[in-house]
Amino acid sequence: xxxxxxxxxxxxxxxxxxxxxxxxxxxxxxxxxxxxxxxxxxxxxxxxxxxxxxxxxxxxxxxxxxxxxxxxxxxxxxxxxxxxxxxxxxxxxxxxxxxxxxxxxxxxxxxxxxxxxxxxxxxxxxxxxxxxxxxxxxxxxxxxxxxxxxxxxxxxxxxxxxxxxxxxxxxxxxxxxxxxxxxxxxxxxxxxxxxxxxxxxxxxxxxxxxxxxxxxxxxxxxxxxxxxxxxxxxxxxxxxxxxxxxxxxxxxxxxxxxxxxxxxxxxxxxxxxxxxxxxxxxxxxxxxxxxxxxxxxxxxxxxxxxxxxxxxxxxxxxxxxxxxxxxxxxxxxxxxxxxxxxxxxxxxxxxxxxxxxxxxxxxxxxxxxxxxxxxxxxxxxxxxxxxxxxxxxxxxxxxxxxxxxxxxxxxxxxxxxxxxxxxxxxxxxxxxxxxxxxxxxxxxxxxxxxxxxxxxxxxxxxxxxxxxxxxxxxxxxxxxxxxxxxxxxxxxxxxxxxxxxxxxxxxxxxxxxxxxxxxxxxxxxxxxxxxxxxxxxxxxxxxxxxxxxxxxxxxxxxxxxxxxxxxxxxxxxxxxxxxxxxxxxxxxxxxxxxxxxxxxxxxxxxxxxxxxxxxxxxxxxx
Length: 622
Ligand code: SPV
Ligand code: MN
Fold this sequence. Notes:
With 622 residues, this protein is an alpha+beta fold.
């Protein structure tokens, strides 16, 4: 076994760490990108605490992170054009003539490889290349996938060491095989404030054929950390080849008071639409807030594992009232990274934290002063809406005991949720697994600051469209087949936390999601009856009234129930029209999808005729 690189690039200690893996594929990858990117030296990061400390120190030393007043706290800035996932420059490399779904950017593989190779040439000149190993999913489990990260950013490795399980030992278990993912990242040339300078040359190219992703001239974690959204794409492809599900989902345990049981849910929501806050509902336990692998156990039950061990969460509105557990974790001494906050005198400030801001501070925009205006004369917000924190889940008081369970946890419920200000009721149960897949497949949501784009309502099937590297039809077929192979199918629900009244005021409080969760949990255990409507099963007023009283000691007015759960037929039909158009252009969409679409449309049209109105109260369906 040999590493073919110039001797001066790596010292004996680092070389020994690589050789100990006994994996020629790893050595070849390191050699290839050392030759292409031409770093000044190579450092290998194992699972040891010394190596973790080295990475943290490096990130501080090279200015990618800066220490804050509280022990373990650091902050990091991404560039002004690098504050969210960048769909426009993210492409899947495809063979000539291959057709991806319309929503996915792709580029012919040879052309893409040529372009990215040119961008990577000498990009690490004068810099240190880190070679780091992680595990997606619990280590040494049937979920585990090894991930090799090459990067010139100590911040990337540091953030990954918080968000992902260590993988050096996992790579030893690979026994020399090439069954792992690898990621080549460079932040590129850095500006004075240590943010990526050449954002015009930002590229994220996904190479399914070689199980690798390239990411250049970016630092924002959703674009740069191999294991987050880059690995998600590779794992979606792998899950399709191997018949399991790889989803943009949280995993959490619902624990209604006095019931003495835990019921595990997974849930998919587009970014900034309530995914983390659902996983963090007070009194419940969290396993993960972003990405889950679902596999079928020998008992015919679906099991889910969190791919990650940390949270890269949106910090806006994290405060003692809305998110006390996270707020407490973020304000105590522990290892964590804040990105793109306002910093004053070693203290971080963010939007909606429930604390007054200082007069001045440092932000991703530079130095900031209270009252500063942008070019349009509007008050300048120094903190981006997508500003985030990076923290380990085990640091949270509500971490579930099964966080690292190699078996995963049995899934009883799956939730799909979007941001819909007008139409979708707060909670609806699907009629069957196949109907639930249809419900996930028609998910729409208003876009948010987590993605660099304008605000609009977009189709986002299973909240996974940004990562769907297989055609949509293939993806849905896999979901249907997964359910058919189960002996016990989870119930599938949809939620919408964002209904507004005519004046634009939210119809629900943020905390109300706990009631919807308890209703879903009760349905799984056969405890509530439901009302059948054209779009699925909805709660009865009496059950919700009881739950609101029990959970919040609050009255839930019948009129509120009627407003929130009325079916807005025109809006529901218009949505089906939009969805039908999108799917008409997709190839290989399963017949079952179109059947459910047609049936749902007919049920809505029937209701329109029968009731002779556009808005039908839930009480009309009893
Ligand atoms: C999301 O946007 O879905 C996130 C954050 O979870 S990111 O890392 O940008 O993907
Ligand atoms: Mn996400």
